[in-house]
Amino acid sequence: MKKTGWTLLALWVLMLFGGALAAQDAATPQPDVYSPIVSQALQDRNDHNINAYLLTGYYALEFEAEGRETNFSELRFNPIMLWRKGKRIFLESELEIELRGTPEGVEQDLGLEYATMHWLLANNLTLYAGKFLSPIGAFQRRFHPDWINRSVNLPVGFGKLMRLQAGTETGAGIRGAFFLGNAKLTYNLFVSNGAILDSLNGTLIYQNMRDNNTNKAVGGRMAILPLPGSTLEIGLSGYRALVGNEGGRYEDATAGIFALDFNYVKAFSGAGKLDLKGQYQTLRLSPTTYEDGLTLDNATSAWYAQVAYQLPAPAEGATWLGNVELVARYATLDVPEGAPWGADQSRITLGTNYWIRWNAALKLGVDLIQGEEGSETALVAVFTMGM
């Protein structure tokens, strides 16, 4: 099958799967609710004037002390706009504004992190399109903002030092959820332009607003929440794309990603709150021989495991202890032997967070870094707030 055929097949599968879910939702008896199409027509007459806006986002100031250097090294401000038009359509977008200190001066970044339109087709089916956070794994789409991430920085392999996936994709997808007994299943499937192979060193270029071939990347994540209250989530993700230039020497080059993640959050009456998270991810590229004779078994992997525990607040006395959270994380990155663009590394990150409000915290931590060239220690402080 030609590459364009695979692309059309992927889009057809998305439409077929979405139609099946919409049909399932329409066939499920629901009190006082018509079929999605009739219900939408009736609601639009009353709801077409709904025009709601919400400006939110987050902010972070980072301080680092490594060796004899101490710097307020990075300032991040990410405004997020949500716009709802009627009951079934809304738009979300985020700007990313960063100031970063370097030995050469100040770097300033201003960019569109994402802009996505969502169309609710049925109770368990939403169609979305635009530039969106990558659904591969749980960390990038849900846990990377400073005020949500319990550690003082990102895990190695998930944005710190190197990333094994795109931060955002440009394309379209479907997502939703449904119940199986007491368990809940969620899905998020997408097609996008995909990444581009850098044939000089065997890495991927993720920012791609113009595809370099007729193939489209296909990926997604499915997860199960088996416990009452959705306290535990286990997710499985996959991704595949042709990444070589059309008609070029590496036009058959492929990239494949596999990810497994878990998330457990539980508040115990009078005993604090426990937050466990982790993710394992692999990125494999083919071919294994690149320009200038570079040969690699081009498979990179990374994983992290994190535990956070928020102390219980005593009934009397030092009630501020209930605002204190202890965090420990281990993360590791394993790169191909002989790779010119990186080296194996592991990090132990220990921290203490003080929550001024539910969405604002002062985070203090120490990073114990072990690499091929030895070990380093860095002290990090972050003041962050979600809006």
Tell me about this structure.
With 387 residues, the chain is mainly beta. The chain has a single domain, classed as Porin, CATH 2.40.160.10. Helices cover 11% and strands 57% of the residues. The chain has a 16-stranded antiparallel beta barrel. A hairpin with a 2-residue loop joins strand 18 and strand 19 (360-371). The protein is globular and about 70 Å long.
Topology:
Layout: H1 3-27, H2 36-47, E1 51-66, E2 69-85, E3 89-102, E4 105-122, E5 125-133, H3 139-143, E6 156-157, E7 160-163, E8 168-180, E9 183-192, E10 196-198, E11 203-205, E12 217-225, E13 232-242, E14 254-268, E15 272-286, E16 299-310, E17 324-334, E18 345-357, E19 360-371, E20 374-386
Parallel strand pairs: 6-7
Antiparallel strand pairs: 1-2, 1-20, 2-3, 3-4, 4-5, 5-8, 8-9, 9-12, 10-11, 12-13, 13-14, 14-15, 15-16, 16-17, 17-18, 18-19, 19-20
Q: Which consecutive residue ranges, at least 5 long each, have pLDDT under 50?
A: 1-13, 15-42
Write the H/E string, N to C.
HHEEEEEHEEEEEEEEEEEEEEE
Overall outline: globular
Largest sheet at a glance?
16 strands, antiparallel, barrel
C-alpha termini separation? 49 Å
Q: What would the average pLDDT be, to the nearest integer?
A: 86
Give the helix proportion (percent range). 10-25%
- Our estimate of the beta-strand percent is over 45%
**What is the count of DSSP helices, taking H or I runs of 4+ residues?**
3
Q: What multimeric state do the chains show?
A: single chain
Radius of gyration: 23 Å
What's the CATH architecture? Answer: Beta Barrel
Number of strands: 20
- Domain count: the total is 1
| Computed structural class | mainly beta
Name of the CATH superfamily:
Porin
